[in-house]
Every structure is written in structure tokens, then in C-alpha cells.
From TrEMBL:
The keyword Acyltransferase applies. This is Acetoin utilization protein AcuA. Monomer. It comes from the Bacteria. The lineage of its organism: Bacteria, Bacillati, Bacillota, Bacilli, Bacillales. CDD domains: NAT_SF (cd04301).
């Protein structure tokens, strides 16, 4: 698998100030930037910053950041699925997962998430991949946003659509455990039919179980 990554950047103007969205960013550049203290969705900020630097060092790892001056205020990660998940069972080199996306409360509602995804897909090498994301309602910031499960799901779906990801059916037990959970997928233009069939068999692993 060719792990070439092409850097892209975009500036967006928001009511709270201008933001640069750029990536895939090199691990050393990522390490030099400040990491906003409100980026707390997955683990304490210092630990999450360190985790992102480690992802950026992986051959397939991609981190796109939104920064205000030298401070990271949002990011999206792409890497191979967790070895314990069904999505890694096919050992597909051309299947990567959008693992995390986060934006600080100050810039929510300013299309930062959408733009992180748009900049991600500016890299033509993304056309070689099947990109998946698994959305679970228990990861969503319902309290912080004041949205209910279905409103939040609609927002998430709209944001993922901006990056070309669409809803796909699956019999994955965790996703099927609640109707708001979902699998979203973007199949690159250069992905071959064999890979698509292999991915379909990962989506429906229980179809012959009675």
C-alpha cells in the first residue's frame, strides 16, 4: 500500500476569529503546537495531544487540525481500525477509520467539523481508501450541545456528508444495539471491486447465523 499523504490547508473566517485547517500534519509539527484545554472528549488534553502525535507517526495515520494561531482547537484522525473491531478482521490495507473528530465549544456551529472533513478529502490519495466511521450515541456530547439523540445524529450525518461519507447498513451488534448508532462510509474512486466485496462481507458477518 502506498501511504503517500499530500498536505492541504484552508483558512475559514468565523465570528470568533479566523482558523487555519491543515493536514495531514507531521508528528513533529503537531507536537510543537499548543493543544486547547477544552479538547476533552476522549481523554485529558495532554494525553490526547500525545496520542495524536503517535497516530501521525503511523504509516497510514493522518491528522487534520484546526488551529487558531498556534493552538489546536479541533482535529480529525484517520488510522487503521482497532485490532479488536470487526473492521480489522479482513486485514484490508485500504480500509481506514475516521476514529475521532472534536472541536472546542467556542467554535462549534461555525462549520469547523465540516471543513476538517473537506480538507481531509482534498488529498487525492484518499481515493485509494474505503473510509469508515462508526457513530455511537453514547460518545455524543448531548449535555454540552443541548440536543437530543436524533438532533445530534442529524448534525453528525450532515457533517460526515460534507466529507462524502454516507450511511451504510451493517449487522454489527454494537451499531445495531441502538437505532441512532450508525456506520458511515466513503468509498474512494480507485477502490477495486474485490475490496468492496470484502468490505461488504465485513459489514454483514452474521447473515448466515441462525
Amino acid at each position: 500500500m502506498d501511504f503517500t499523504k499530500t498536505y492541504n490547508a484552508s483558512e475559514i473566517k468565523t465570528a470568533k476569529g479566523n482558523i487555519i485547517i491543515e493536514g495531514p500534519i507531521l508528528a513533529e509539527d503537531l507536537a510543537r503546537l499548543e493543544f486547547h484545554e477544552d479538547l476533552v472528549a476522549f481523554r485529558p488534553p495532554r494525553q490526547q495531544h500525545k496520542a495524536l502525535v503517535e497516530i501521525a507517526r503511523l504509516p497510514e495515520g493522518r491528522i487534520i487540525v484546526a488551529r487558531e494561531n498556534d493552538t489546536i482547537v479541533g482535529y480529525v484522525t484517520y488510522l487503521y481500525p482497532d485490532p479488536l473491531e470487526r473492521w480489522s478482521k479482513g486485514k484490508m490495507e485500504n480500509l481506514i477509520e475516521l476514529g475521532a473528530i472534536e472541536v472546542i465549544p467556542k467554535f462549534r456551529g461555525a462549520s469547523v467539523g465540516k471543513n476538517l472533513l473537506k480538507v481531509s478529502m482534498m488529498d487525492d490519495h484518499m481515493e485509494d481508501y474505503i473510509i469508515i466511521t462508526t457513530e455511537y450515541y453514547w460518545h455524543w456530547d448531548l449535555k454540552g450541545t443541548g440536543l437530543n439523540v436524533w438532533e445530534y445524529r442529524k448534525v453528525m450525518e450532515k457533517m460526515m456528508n460534507a466529507g462524502g461519507l454516507e450511511w451504510f447498513a451493517t449487522d454489527d451488534p454494537e451499531i445495531s444495539s441502538h437505532p441512532a448508532n450508525c456506520l458511515m462510509v466513503r468509498i474512494g474512486k480507485r477502490v477495486d471491486n474485490d475490496s468492496i466485496q470484502q468490505f461488504d462481507s465485513l459489514r454483514f458477518m452474521n447473515r448466515f447465523m441462525y
